[in-house]
Write a structure and sequence with these properties.
alpha/beta, disordered N terminus, 287 residues, globular, Sc_DH/Rdtase_CS, KR_dom, SDR family oxidoreductase, oxidoreductase, NAD(P)-bd_dom_sf, Rossmann fold
């Protein structure tokens, strides 16, 4: 008999992950850059990985635009509380939820909490992810490989499965992929592979749901200054020149990426599904 239980292994213990924004210097710029216009008024959103970086910028921008926001994160409680407070300072409501979304039961618990608190779910942003630099494919252990896929792509399946019955016509799902899916990244083989899977997931899920009035799109950021990079995503040498290879010659800030998520979450993008936006500093990619 088939079982619904997943073989979810314990997280790999790494003191530097997922990375604290409170300890990061210089601080990423996540504050919304323009006044809200009510584009998500009355909506309820889940944003994963919202304790810091891109996720925080998205959560606070959504709150400014009128959404109630569930801030989902792994274990950075101080950062997550700051995100909640920033959302509330925008005049909206927010709640924090800690847990490993690589476990399907955790995704279900998150959705149950949101429905119990607010009675609906309109926008799901799958942003949580992790990455580990390895210069040699032989250095990637089976545990790391499984963990990276579990966090980055399995969690999206689990959360969408949990949320599906609550997503009505007009709902939107926005997944975070990466420029590494399009150009590759020598030191991030497992991470880049998950991002390819996320892009395929986005396009295929769109095909499944678009006829039911639910839009599914993605955002593929380039090099963005977040805790993920110094804590686990880039070597010391790469950090010294982080983002300088882009045509703009610099890394992006989280608040330069968040508007792409807002656009895909609201009715401004009502004729878009199965698409990917590319806030990446001017790098031209296919697809």
């Amino acid at each position: 008999m088939a079982s619904n239980a997943a073989d979810v292994r314990p997280p790999i213990h790494e003191d530097g992950l997922p990375g604290s924004e409170a300890d990061l210097e210089p601080k990423p710029d996540w504050h919304p850059r323009y006044p809200g216009s009510g584009r998500l008024h009355g909506k309820v959103a889940i944003v994963t990985g919202a304790d810091s970086g891109i996720g925080r910028a998205v959560a606070v921008l959504f709150a400014r635009e009128g959404a109630k926001v569930a801030v989902a994160y792994l274990c950075e409680h101080e950062d997550a509380q700051k995100t909640v407070e920033a959302c509330e300072a925008e005049g909206s409501e927010a709640l924090a939820f800690a847990g490993d979304l690589g476990d399907p039961a955790v995704g279900q618990a998150l959705v149950d909490l949101v429905i119990g608190e607010w009675g609906r779910l309109d926008v799901l942003v799958n942003n949580a992810g992790e990455q580990h630099p390895d210069k040699d494919i032989r250095a990637i252990t089976p545990q790391q490989l499984q963990r990276t896929f579990q966090t980055n792509i399995f969690s999206m399946f689990y959360l969408v499965q949990a949320a599906r019955e609550h997503l009505k016509p007009g709902a939107a799902i926005v997944n975070c992929t990466s420029i590494t899916m399009y150009g590759g990244e020598a030191e991030l083989l497992d991470y880049s592979s998950t991002k390819g899977a996320i892009t395929a997931f986005t396009r295929s899920l769109s095909e499944q749901l678009v006829g039911q009035g639910i839009r599914v799109n993605g955002v593929a950021p380039g090099p963005i200054w977040t805790p993920l990079n110094p804590s686990g995503g880039a070597s010391k040498e790469k950090l010294e020149t982080f983002g300088q290879k882009t045509p703009m010659g610099r890394p992006g800030q989280p608040n330069e990426v968040a508007p792409a998520f807002l656009f895909l979450a609201c009715e401004d993008s009502s004729y878009m599904s199965g698409q990917v936006l590319h806030p990446n500093g001017g790098t031209v990619v296919n697809g």
